[in-house]
Design goal:
Strand content: 5-15%
Distance between the termini: 80 Å
Shape: elongated
Protein name: Zinc finger, BED-type
Organism: Cinara cedri
Order of helices and strands: HHEEHH
Helix content: 40-55%
Number of strands: 2
Number of helices: 4
C-alpha cells in the first residue's frame, strides 16, 4: 500500500510549513490592526432608537428620559432594552408572552396606561 503514496522528504515539508506559517502570521497582524479600528468605530455608531407613538398600538409605552427611552410593556410592565424598540421585536414580546392580547385595539392599551 505504501508504494502508491507520494512521500516528501522532511526538509521540503518543513520549508513549506515555515513559509505558510510566516505568511499567515503577517496577515493576521495586518487583519488584527484593521479589525480593531473598525470594531471601535462600529461601537461608536450605535444609535439610540426613539419612541414612536405607533408603538402603543402594539402594546408598548416608554420609560426613562427622552434621550434614552426604553420600551415598557403596558400589560406586564416589563422594561426592555433600547435595541428592542423595533416593531418586530415588540410584536414578538406580545405574541410570545401575551398571545391573548395580540389583537386588542388602541383604546385597550390606552386604558392600561
Amino acid at each position: 500500500m505504501d508504494k502508491w503514496l507520494n512521500k516528501k522528504s522532511m526538509t521540503q515539508s518543513q520549508e513549506i510549513t515555515e513559509t505558510i506559517s510566516a505568511s499567515t502570521v503577517k496577515k493576521r497582524k495586518l487583519n488584527y490592526g484593521e479589525h480593531s479600528t473598525s470594531s471601535c468605530e462600529s461601537k461608536q455608531k450605535n444609535a439610540l432608537r426613539k419612541y414612536c407613538s405607533e408603538y402603543l398600538r402594539i402594546g408598548f409605552s416608554w420609560n426613562g428620559d427622552e434621550e434614552h427611552p426604553r420600551p415598557q410593556c403596558v400589560i406586564c410592565a416589563c422594561i426592555l432594552a433600547n435595541e428592542s424598540m423595533r416593531p418586530n421585536k415588540l410584536h414578538r414580546h406580545i405574541f410570545t408572552n401575551h398571545p391573548e392580547m395580540k389583537n386588542k385595539p388602541l383604546e385597550f392599551y390606552g386604558r392600561k396606561l
